[in-house]
Amino acid sequence: MGNVAYHVVAILVGAVVGVLGSGFHVGVEKLTAAWPAFLDTGLGLDGFPLYAAAALVAAAMTVVSLWLVRRFAPEASGSGVPEIEGAMEGLREVHWHRVLPVKFVAGLLSLSSGMVLGREGPTIHIGASVAKAASDLMKWSGEDMRGLLAAGGAAGLAAAFNAPLAAVLFVIEETRRQFPYSSRTYIAVVLASIASAIVTEYLTGNRPYMLLEATAIPYGWLPAFALLGLILGGAGFVFNRTLVWSLDHVRRFGMRSSFYIFPTFVGLTVGVLMFVRPEATQGGELLAVQLTKESLPLGMLAFVVLLRFVMTMASYSTGVAGGIFAPILALATTIGLCYGTTLDLFFDLPYQAHTTFAIAAMGGLFAATIGAPLVGMVLVLELTSAYAVLVPVMICAIFAHMAFLALGGRPIYEILLERTLAIEAEARAAGSR
Question: Which N-terminal stretch is annotated as signal sequence (predicted)?
């Protein structure tokens, strides 16, 4: 089997993932807007009846999403990135025939309910599942199959954020231990990402998903971005620790009672927040752009940080299908705006400095939590098209990563994979007694 055939398959995988990823993206956007509009303007509800109806709808979507995952594809829970890394390492199996439909439908329901989850995890998992289907069809295994899994995952990230370069770098940096690097597999990853990006741009438009205007910052202000990076390194450490703590406690609660009680409560809460505090719901890409234009007071920004942190932990801990990339970026934007607003109390900041702090913070928190600073830098620039602030973004990201490592932090997907393997080992041990 030659390189040409392998690369043609990678291109086809990327194109299919572009179609599925675009459909998933548009579906989430449409459904997220449709059901609140139906309750509000369609049925004419207001006040308590509106909040009660919204709570019930969001809770129903959450419970159905979780039921689909637990009933048909338990590995479709959460982001899916740890599953792909485990499969590339030979520790997990990608059951594409059940993951594909469940991840798509369950992810559509959970994200559209308003939960603070991102679409990038599901699209990466969907992409790798398409790649596994192609590998099975071609009867490929070993390095060829693992390389195509990486290509499919990269295509999924390219489709989620229209960020093909960051998608390639994600494979190289994030899966550096698992990726079977060779010119053959590397080219396959690039081709799949390009194909996915072309299809995505054709179907949804060629535009940055988080377009932000920013101008170059005077060099004298660069140390402020290093300090912001150090703060975000600590925030990333707390984020990862809290996420795992939340997952463990919710799981123990579910084992003692029911795995549906906590998700139902979160769904009810999210439904009300969709109307009362919409900034505390959804993935947050649009929120990040909106906040940079509103000039909110420091107290309100700090409140949004707290709300989104709590709701991210609660949403991901339910076990429904959904990622954490977008929530991390939105949380980071708000932290960056808090930082800039605080400095503004004491200094005369340069023009558009608040926006620049917000953009740099996205790269910083991503670099800390995910453990991939280069991906964080490039992803943020592709998302915002703010190439004029490249140097501040790089400084913030690398200092955040350094601080995170100094605190003893480890990449969140690495931790989540180990946790999954430990839970399964524990279940097998209990079953053999």
Answer: none
pTM for the whole structure: 0.94
Looking at residue 191, its amino acid is L
**Three-state SS at 78:** strand
Tens-place pLDDT, residues 22-58: 999 999 999 999 999 999 988 888 899 999 999 999 9
Taking the domain 219-420, which CATH number applies? 1.10.3080.10
> What is the share, in percent, of the chain residues with pLDDT greater than 70?
99
Report the candidate in 133, 38, 82 with the shortest Cα–Cα distance to residue 323. Answer: 82
Give the list of residues 6+ apart from residue 257 with CB closer than 8 angstroms, or none: none
Residues 6+ apart with CB under 8 A from 221: 350, 353, 392
The Cα–Cα gap between 45 and 369 comes to: 41
pLDDT digits (tens, 9 = 90+) for 320-366: 999 999 999 999 999 999 999 999 999 989 988 999 999 999 999 99
- How far is residue 374's CA from residue 195's CA, in Å, rounded to a whole number? 22
> How is the chain split into domains, by residue range?
3-204, 219-420
Look up residue 55 and give its two tokens: 């709570």
With both helix axes pointing from N to C terminus, report the angle between 373-384 and 390-406 in degrees, rounded to the nearest 10. 150
Superfamily holding 3-204: Clc chloride channel (1.10.3080.10)
